[in-house]
Design goal:
Chains A, B: Residues 260-430 form the Acyl-CoA oxidase C-alpha1 domain. Chains A, B: Residues 119-228 form the Acyl-CoA oxidase/dehydrogenase middle domain. Chains A, B: Heteropentamer composed of five different subunits. Chains A, B: Residues 648-665 have a biased composition (Acidic residues). 2 copies of one chain form a homodimer. By secondary structure, the first copy, chain A, is an alpha+beta fold. Chain A folds into 3 domains: 2-74; 118-251, Butyryl-CoA Dehydrogenase, subunit A, domain 2; 261-593, Butyryl-CoA Dehydrogenase, subunit A, domain 3, CATH 1.20.140.10. Chain A has 23 helices and 13 strands. The first copy, chain A, has helices at 2-6, 9-24, 38-58, 61-74, 76-96, 99-107, 260-291, 310-346, 354-389, 401-409, 418-437, 465-492, 497-503, 505-530, 535-554, 556-561, 567-586, 588-593, 599-602, 613-624, 634-642, 652-656, 658-671, and strands at 118-121, 137-141, 146-150, 158-161, 170-179, 182-192, 205-209, 223-227, 230-233, 243-244, 250-251, 293-296, 303-305. In chain A, strands 1, 2, 3, 5, 6 and 9 form a 6-stranded mixed β-sheet that branches. The first copy, chain A, has a 3-stranded antiparallel β-sheet with strand order 4-8-7, with no helix packed on it. A two-stranded antiparallel sheet of chain A has the order 10-11. In chain A, helix 8 runs antiparallel to helix 9, helix 11 crosses helix 14 and helix 15 (535-554) crosses helix 17. The longest helix of chain A is centred in the middle third of the chain and has 37 residues, at 310-346. Chain A is globular. The first copy, chain A, starts with a helix and ends with a helix. The model of chain A is unreliable at 648-656 (pLDDT under 50). At the A-B interface, helix 2, helix 3, strand 12, helix 8 and helix 9 of A face helix 2, helix 3, strand 12, helix 8 and helix 9 of B.
Chain lengths: 672, 672
């Protein structure tokens, strides 16, 4: 089971190896993390950073990616901090630099951080999602063969720049390129921030600390940067796509580059991370529910395990099913993506299949926008529901839920705000719909749009995996149709394309949501159907049914509206979900164990593998809160309060004079 | 408008007065709160505490309650800290002490904290919701006329006790009373924890700090307490209900006391607090959306205000409507509750109306359980949606959303876990249903269950307030019927009452949810319909329609299932919600202003009243994060990294030897 969930035995073994390694590494101590100060957290992050450099330069990419995936679960803060230097800065070089530029920066030490520590300076105070609207300028100075990087006003201050506050020596700065007074749009300029020997700021560079955030305080290192006429050599502009010659001649690429790949990789990893983080929270909540007892049932002395209450099963089992479904989706997405990239790489431009593969890539790219949104939302929701399911103890920092929530919350915002990404997915579905009615054969992810008979399909009442799949295809078809027809009607009424898209945004959003849930279900179903039939795959089929039917229950309005199920069948769905929750509960503990997360990684006494919840919790609380030798403010604050005499006070009536005050305020107001 | 929202002009004026007072009080400084350490937060909390003692002893209860309501919005941490001493400890004395006992404790200084600072020691490590299952014991020792308070094992440790860690001198300890070997259930014993002169712990009392929590760190003062055979005089047992004589004769009350009142008061204040906290978050999000611009629409140079995007209106306007709806619900609940208590107080036991009033009180009590649950959930959800609607800046601590979320989250758990409370409400609805079919006339809150024609009602397509009200009555009727019928069927199949209730818990939950939303809508509708017709009340009618229709959209499955609306009408509902969002957006800024929350209270630069978002945000970030004089870890960590030579490393292949390791792990595993 565990091997299936991890994709391969090798992946599982590697995970166990990495878990054992970090459990023993002092920099990766987790149990004291809740009580560290901002400065202590930062310093420890930097220690981890240094400890990872060895692996990044020596391990295969595949192995290192698995390592980072694990780090992402154990320590999201650090994962981000590392991702900034490698994913973003190095990614910017890889996608934007010419081969010569790339080898220049690698020679200067970008890979091993020996010479250059990079950061990624895109976002500005007043501009996030709209990259084309960034306001930092890069003006070409022909005389010196340099660009002049400048922050024209406060709103153009680079903001949130991870690693800038106290670590980075260089930044990939995104700025509006201006040559001879003409604007050419946003390009990237590698700009030195600090002297690598003394670490003093370069002339014209102002850097400050962004300060406290909701979570991921290990990257407190987020900074802001203002440039005041900072000069960089022309050669430090990344010129793979747009080139500027010594004479200031600008050559722009004939076509916008194919950037699907880069975004798709990030989104796939966020889908996987959503599953992993949800599994971490669920490991704690399910184990706790197996230990915690509450209210005795009649004569039996022992109180009932929380997990045996139907409502508690309802709270957790669908979330377990969802986390597993998203996990398999992530695995398949990864494989699909690798297959497509490989096919593209080895294919000749004349290959007749090229177009199909590109279509598939484009479709997966659009779907991945929706997946990123709905999977991160689902995970955030799961973490908070797990916290609530542990009652008061879930509110203790040592349960680790507060940190999990705070760390994860940003996933709904960065790399594209979830709502905006959902609308992008919806826009693409509207487009796919248009292509389908023109008779075009669509890519697999949206192929159900080619089959218009699905629109009026009815359930055969079996509620089996095929029935559920047809149900999702039916409602997704209908809600996409609704959004597309609204869009067309708006166009006909004279709106521009952009206006029409804005006006139908609620319907686009719903289309993206139902398509995405159906897509997750389909990938999960395919994964379990490919397995050989045995106890494990039977259990996963049960889990898949629970996921599909629970989501139908959640979105029941659409199934009734489009007539796939009638009211009686919807009641049957609820009964089935009740029964499936009980069935999954009976294997909940082995299922949770197959997530293979060590006590060190989950870092919560409530989820201790051996069930020693209260003992571990008490020990951790004691260790984290040693008694002070002396009361910090008894003499200054408490003693005077306790020993105070009431007679010290003035007569309350005259002292308060409340009604006079209110009268005066009212008069003031009337006089205004 | 603002007066209407605050219930009276006096309430609004008082709020403005209190806001002005705390804005100038150094202990209530809020802007630096995100960067204070645990110890600093605690000390400041104690300063606030001392500053409030004057008001509690001198202000009228009504005025002081309004003062605390405001404090609850500005500083939830402190509000809790204060509530522990006054609401809980004093509340325990009021409800449990005889008149003589009460005056004894008041003479010892309970009110002014001059002599006694109390805390409320109910919850134990292993017991929260199930108070009857508490395991601390209080054994009567006839010889010395004392009770011996004892913690028998770790799970019985008093846990989460607010104020215990470093402030309280006494505790109201809930313990199983044992007299002559017989257990009499949980009673309350006022137990001294610390010497009031020296503050040293009393013999046998062990106290520790519970440490870091998700939020409300100003009450870090949560402690745990273990008692090792601690003796308290018999007279310190609260004896209003159960008495123990000098000879150990126990007299128990003939009937369980009527405790509706106490719980109802707390729940009403949590409904009001849900509205206020949601309004605080919405003030920030809506003002920010009016300032933030993103993407330009075509040729127009200026980018579009976020608030003008239909999807952004969809994100925020229904939440504005909901916060207002809950606010009016809170006001009416308060009035209803006061009227009922007054009626009960002045009524003779023989009064023929007594029974009606008691029924009404009972119904309101049950409904208030559902209201507490769904209003606190709605508010928590609102805070996070507001955060997300502000993009990346919502993740900054200085936006204040992270603290608002963390502080509010506990409201879903304490005073009854929301899921459990919902089920209690559902249980009472099942009971009401049973009474209705026996022909009993029900209290107003559930009177629609007396009208069985509502079950098959259909919409007249007007979608006006009456149509919406009938819609809610129709679906609530049907889902309560479903839960009740499931329950009856389970009883018939031979289940015990308790088992049957557990088995139908999902249906009970749904019944409580739909009843509660319909109830909120009804109270809001009644409030606006009582207002004289003018521009303001028209606007509030629009808000009420938005609330009712948006919630129908959210729960559309039930309206389709029970046939109140058909698919075409449901599409109309969506169109109406779109249009109403745009309409409310047009008055969004004045609506938000009428919430009357000062810049000091909202404590977020993103929501500055004058729109100076970026300037204020930048200034706050700078003030909170002064540049360090020296880099904290450049020499220790960064310099060695930057100046490292790659040649220092061993040959990567042999160093890694990864495949050998994995082989070994696999062999180990197979050998198991």
């Amino acid at each position: 089971m565990s091997i299936k969930m991890h994709g391969s035995e090798k992946a599982l073994l590697l995970k166990e190896k990495f878990m054992a390694e970090i459990a023993r590494h002092p920099a990766f101590k987790l149990s004291d993390i809740h009580d560290l100060s901002k400065d202590e957290l930062r310093e420890r992050t930097m220690e981890k950073f240094a400890s990872m450099v060895y692996f990044v330069t020596n391990e295969s990419l595949e192995t290192f990616q698995l390592r980072m995936q694990l780090i992402g679960i154990a320590d999201p803060s650090f994962w981000t901090r590392f991702g900034v230097a490698y994913g973003l800065f190095l990614g910017a070089l890889r996608s934007g630099a010419t081969p010569n530029q790339l080898s220049y920066w690698i020679d200067r030490g970008v890979l091993g951080l020996n010479g250059v520590i990079g950061c990624f300076a895109m976002t500005e105070l007043a501009h996030g999602s709209n990259v084309a609207g960034l306001e930092t300028t890069a003006t070409f100075d022909r005389g010196s063969d340099e660009f002049i990087i400048h922050t024209p006003h406060l709103g153009a201050t680079k903001w949130w720049i991870g690693g800038a506050a106290s670590t980075a020596t260089h930044a990939a700065v995104f700025a509006q390129m201006i040559v001879d007074g003409k604007k050419y749009g946003v390009k990237t300029f590698v700009t030195q921030l600090r002297d690598t020997k003394t670490f003093t700021l370069m002339p014209g560079v102002t850097i400050g600390d962004i300060g406290k955030k909701m979570g991921r305080d290990g990257i407190e290192d987020n900074g802001y940067i203002q440039f005041t006429y900072v000069r960089v050599p022309r050669a430090h502009m990344l010129m793979k796509h747009t080139q500027v010659s010594r004479d200031g001649v600008v050559s722009e690429p004939p076509l916008a580059q194919l950037t699907y790949g880069a975004l798709l990789g990030g989104r796939t990893s966020m889908v996987t991370d959503s599953s992993n983080s949800a599994k971490k929270a669920l490991t704690v909540a399910v184990r706790y529910a197996a230990v915690r007892r509450q209210f005795s049932s009649g004569k039996n002395e022992l109180e009932t395990q929380l997990l045996d209450y139907p409502i508690h099963q309802r709270r957790l089992m669908p979330l377990v099913a969802q986390a597993i479904a998203i996990g398999f989706t992530g695995l398949r997405l990864q494989t699909m993506y690798e297959d497509m990239t490989q096919a593209l790489d080895t294919m000749e431009p004349s290959d007749p299949n090229l177009h199909d593969i590109l279509d598939k890539l484009k479709e997966t790219h659009a779907t991945s926008a929706g997946l990123k949104a709905f999977c991160t939302w689902a995970c955030l929701d799961t973490i908070d529901k797990c916290r609530q399911s542990c009652g008061g103890h879930g509110y203790s920092a040592y349960s680790n839920f507060p940190l999990m929530y705070a760390d994860f919350a940003v996933q709904c915002t960065w790399e594209g705000d979830n709502t905006i990404l959902s609308l992008q997915a919806g826009r693409s579905l509207v487009g796919a719909w248009g292509a389908a009615i023109k008779g075009k054969k669509l890519a697999p992810g949206v192929a159900y749009l080619n089959d218009s008979s699905i629109r009026t399909a009815k359930s055969n009442s079996s509620l089996d995996l095929s029935d559920i799949q047809r149900a999702w295809n039916c409602v997704a078809f209908n809600v996409i149709k609704k959004a597309a027809e609204e869009y067309v009607a708006l166009l006909k009424s004279g709106k521009t394309k952009d206006e029409a898209m804005e006006r139908c945004s609620q319907s686009r959003f719903i289309a993206a949501k139902l398509h995405t849930i159906g897509y997750i279900f389909r990938l999960f179903k395919e994964a379990v159907e490919e397995m050989e039939v045995n106890e494990e795959s039977k259990m996963l089929r049960t889990v898949a049914r629970l996921y599909g039917l629970w989501q139908i229950e959640e979105q029941q309005g659409y199934f009734l509206k489009y007539g796939y199920f009638d009211a009686t069948q919807i009641d049957k769905v609820q009964e089935n979900v009740d029964a499936l929750c009980a069935e999954v509960r009976s294997v909940a503990i082995p299922l949770i164990d197959s997530f293979a997360l060590s006590d060190h990684i989950i870092n919560s006494p409530l989820g201790k593998w051996d069930g020693s919840v209260y003992e571990s919790y008490f020990a951790q609380v004691q260790a984290a809160n040693p008694l002070p030798k002396e009361h910090p403010y008894f003499n200054r604050l408490i003693k005077p309060l306790l020993e105070r005499q009431n007679e010290d006070m003035e007569d309350p009536e005259s002292a308060m004079g409340l009604d006079d005050e209110l009268k005066e305020m009212e008069d003031d107001r009337k006089g205004e």
